[in-house]
């Protein structure tokens, strides 16, 4: 006999150990959407006239994010959603995810902007990382992708830039910053504030566990790509992920409590902690904390 949903007696499709609930497909979808709406209302205040740029990689997180934002705001004519995809130039990887991303935006009828490292920086990520370098490929990719996203978002007049970070990503990042004693990064992770030149970052999925993002994509039959980026990921993040997952099994709710504690205290830390002055990069004009932005530094521009 299948286990029943605790809300309606249909067959359950998931057991949320942290809430103690067995829930059916309908109530699962409702639960995910409630969490996302709550996050948006409390942290990101979407308003009339907003242009929301959505970072769309084609993986499950960004696909669910775009689908949900379209579901929530698609009916509003005073809000525009635009998908942005960056083609980093990773042979054998990006082609597939790009195809999935295109499929989704055309199904939903959403404007889709695709830009490449090659066009922007004259080299693909493969070419950039084949050169002599001090940092891992993910550092290059992360910095350049962020910079390019912000640039495009500014170009189209977007005032929000939404990314698909889920609860697991957030808990890992918070824990990594603690382990590294990195207060600057902790503050940068805090709820967004208005900074001239930087498009406001929003992470509407931050209260949804990774497993549930994947399940949401599956039950809604969304086209998403499951291939892993061929570049090795940050080693520390993998260790922290395993550690948190082990804790979560023994102490359900750990991921939420890591985030809750952080959300409650970060504002106070930010008030007391001196923050870097912002200026404009003298090469590309992006807003940054030095005379040269991270992207220009990595590209060896001077
Ligand atoms: Zn139900
Ligand atoms: Zn620059």
TrEMBL record:
PROSITE patterns: UPF0021. One of its GO terms (cellular component) is cytosolic tRNA wobble base thiouridylase complex. The keyword Iron-sulfur applies. Keywords: 4Fe-4S, ATP-binding, Iron, Iron-sulfur, Magnesium, Metal-binding, Nucleotide-binding, Transferase, Zinc. One of its GO terms (molecular function) is metal ion binding. Zn(2+) 2 binds at residues 281, 284, 293, 296. Residues 4-29 form the 2-thiouridine synthetase TtuA-like N-terminal LIM domain. Its cofactor is [4Fe-4S] cluster; Mg(2+). Zn(2+) 1 binds at residues 5, 8, 24, 27. This is PP-loop family protein. InterPro entries: CTU1-like_ATP-bd, Ncs6/Tuc1/Ctu1, Rossmann-like_a/b/a_fold, TilS/TtcA_N, tRNA_thiolation_TtcA_Ctu1, TtuA-like_LIM_N, UPF0021_CS. It comes from Methanococcoides burtonii (strain DSM 6242 / NBRC 107633 / OCM 468 / ACE-M). GO terms for biological process: tRNA wobble position uridine thiolation. ATP binds at residues 55-57, 61, 86, 164, 169. Residues 52-232 form the tRNA(Ile)-lysidine/2-thiocytidine synthase N-terminal domain.
